[in-house]
Here is the input.
Amino acid sequence: MGEDRQATFGSDGSLDTETPPEAREGTTDWGEPKADGETDGGYNRYDVSSLLQKAVRRSDEEVAAWAAWELARSGYAWNLWDRLNLYVVEDLRAGQNVALLVERYETLATDRWEPDSWKGRVCAIHAALACARAESSREASNADEFFRNAAAARAEARESDDDPAVDFPVGDLEVGGEFDVAFDKHTADGSRLDRGDRFFKLFGARVGPEGEDEQSARWQRLNMALSDIDYDEAEVAHAVEPVSPDDRWSDPMEFDGDNDD
Here is the structure.
């Protein structure tokens, strides 16, 4: 299995990592007894669950709505909500507010109402539509897989004393390197280098490339003016200057070391 949570197959004894009971109670739409893992419409619930994910990923609203409805009405609401909550982190672009909506719809459907009732089914449809309408992306899953592969390549290269074919985006992460700004007063190396409040204000607290809004920049300037540290005009300007979108990690100002703590 490893970390692949999608390895759940059919109802014929194949692999299933989900433990809640099957919704066998009742009959199909044509009055036949339901088999294990069968929906009211006579579908395999694993297939419907997989279809729901692909519909969300491909932004097919109608298919996503139907799949959610079919699972909810068939007694597989636990499966539906488990998968939808996974989809918002696996198949949507980071920052989509739909994650909060899905949680709210689930609470309404399962805590306030019966999951397979009319209200519960409508909540399921709402949640599926919200996911399908959100911006799809496999970025988090792709990043996780790449970082794991890079870690393996790094470890293999170290065994053979070679350079890795692919490395982490930060390389060795060391003082004086590209990401030197990370070594401020909040790290042991930064403290040893006397990088106190001055270093943090000038370099570690910078944002961008959009920069601070005017109110935040104004507060930063006032904080530096009220500080016990004597900042000059160039330092104050640098502290609130946006980082460059083309070179986010360089800081051209010199710093000699000043333990201001």
